[in-house]
Amino acid sequence: MSLQIRPTLLLLLGLLCQTFCQDILITEDLSKLHKEFRKLQLILESIVTDGSPLAEIIAFPATIAVNKHASLTANDLRVGASPGYNVSDTCLNHTEILIDALFRKEEWAIRIIDALGKLESDIFDGNFVWPGSYDECLNTQAVVYVDPSTKSGPSYPYRGQYCMLSIPLSNKQSATLLSSTPALSVGICLPETCNDDDAVSLVRTVLSLLPSNVTAKINPTVQCQERDREVDGRATAVIIIASIIAVIIVLGTAYDVIARLIVNFSTETKMAQFSESLPITKNTHSNGAVYENGDVNDRIHLLSKPKYSEYESVEKHTHEERHADKGIVVHILLAFSIYSNAVKILSTKQAAGSLSAVNGIRCLSMFWVILGHTYAFGFRFASNMGSFFPKMLNRFTFQAIDNATVSVDSFFLLSGLLLAFLTFRELKTAGGIKEFRWGMFYFHRFWRLTPPYMLLMMVYVPTVKYWSDGPLWPKDGFEIDYCKDSWWTNLLYINNFVNADKMCMAWSWYLANDMQFFVVSPILLIALYKSPIIGGIVSSIFLIASFITSGVIASVNNVSANIITQGGTTGFLQLYIKPYCRIGPYIVGILTGYILFKTDCNVKIGRIRNLVGWLTATGIALAVLYGLYSPNNNNSLSIGVSALYMSLARTAWGVALAWVIFACATGNGGFINTLLSWNVYVPLGRLTYCAYLTHPIVMILYYSSLRNTIVFNDLEISYLFVSHLVFAYAAAFILSLAFESPMMGLEKVLFKRDKRS
């Protein structure tokens, strides 16, 4: 393939000839053009006779133009541009300054070229992102001299502006959920006076000089980063609201701390008065001396006797006095106290009768979600996915990651179980179904989930674009049009049905499902409370309907059993996020909670039966996780078998996990119960909801701030997982202190709601 084309655009063409179309990657022309391109680099060494070799190599497109052609002007760009490709005069003039500076081999111009994305290795392994040097581009200042020969009278007309050129490599939608539609992305550095339209026009001008059969399918896009982004009205409003909340938090914390200092001083004073009022006693020491109320040790001895309860009443009375005359405003302030809320969150104490093993399962499931998302969110930022991903799929143990979606089903199971277990307790305390406060039943759930969810969305969506920068950073944020068409679906928990393809905070599909399950849960709860037979029939109807619906959808849409790696967006939108396909584990959880309530967690199981139960649960769990494995990823399951798996697998996982909770709660869990009931899981369990909300934001913040792509391997993933885990829970702690705990405190203040176990 000849590269004898118009010299006037050789500069830009030299930068783009590596990357201009999908034909480059899939035809024999790739090899030919690649060889020609490499020849140009070798010829450069024989052409250049002066200057820095490194500088000459970096600036080879301009050097070729200098040695073979007389001049390259902005007018040439105008002449070479195809009709309809308009570039502003300022952008053209400043581009001419850059070209002239390259002829003179000025350092700043060479830096501009050095900052451009260049041909990378691992192309056939999926390395389609060549970002260049973002920071070098932005830090480069153009210099224009009155007399270039003497470098006198310098002026500084513009600085470098980083833009990302993207050329789609396929017109088809992504075949999996782990990657978007492939595109070749190349970093380019232009004068800051060139806008997005100018950049696109320059690129199209270059591409128009190539053969029409090559450029016909090319539809390039360019996004230029804004150097100094002004805070818009949305972000300003968020800053004002967040500042008000921060002030309330500071006031509440200050009041709480000062009040505690005062009450501690008061308690010590009353303790001293109480000690003085103790009866005089005599104590004969070994030396025969008798002391009357004068020995501190004697008083400590007396206080350690049963009369210590009297001191406790004094301390309690002082604490009650502190809270007795507080108005509602003070109580609201105290609900925002960081000190009190942090103590509650970090406490390892549990209420009597709690299912302690649930905390361990909740935390480990959250860790599993974060591990799976470490892979999923990072795939498009990895340069070696073509070799790494197939290697992982061939690894048997990787099935625990490939099928990690069942970790979400663990949460559905836990949600249904705890709902049933606690609600049946409250129904018993209230005296029956009619006396139960069903309005508060729904309000509490909505209030428990919504404030931290919506407040996080309020802060994240309008302001995230200001949080960082980089060649891979989206200048308008990560959500489609700032969620203006979809935020209300999140508020109403219908975002998995309405505008699902534009879902705000895509991971919030889980919250929609959980709330929808909760809305219909009284049907099952009331049926079970009235009669286990009726409840069993109703639950069976729900389960069978879910099995049939899931199977039909999977069969009609030809959804593979592994919906993540082979299911595509159709499987995600039609099957994965729909409640009628995911309710199975939730129903299993409700039935398990009912059994634990009826038996009061007191069930004696023989050793043999217990062993059989554990072996069966383990076998089911392993079958769900590893049953899809096939060497070389040759999944030959028929449509019918895949549909059957999609129908039953998630509920089967719920059954296996339900046994673990049941065995641990009834004293048949052995060392598994000991591990899952570790006190460290208690505070981490309280942060699980907020960790789920924040962990994707933590990940996209890191990945999108990268200056270059990363190479995935086991060690890299391990470091990323641990880092994401720590930062996700740190962010969850902040979110809980700022939004979740205060809102729960407000509910107690406004509705005088008693603590729930």
Automatic annotation (TrEMBL):
Residues 1-21 form the signal peptide. Pfam families: Acyl_transf_3, NRF. GO terms for molecular function: acyltransferase activity, transferring groups other than amino-acyl groups. Keywords: Membrane, Signal, Transmembrane, Transmembrane helix. The chain crosses the membrane at residues 237-263, 363-383, 403-424, 445-463, 507-529, 541-563, 583-599, 611-629, 652-675, 687-705, 717-739. It comes from the Eukaryota. Residues 88-221 form the Nose resistant-to-fluoxetine protein N-terminal domain. PANTHER family: O-ACYLTRANSFERASE, O-ACYLTRANSFERASE LIKE PROTEIN. This is Nose resistant-to-fluoxetine protein N-terminal domain-containing protein.
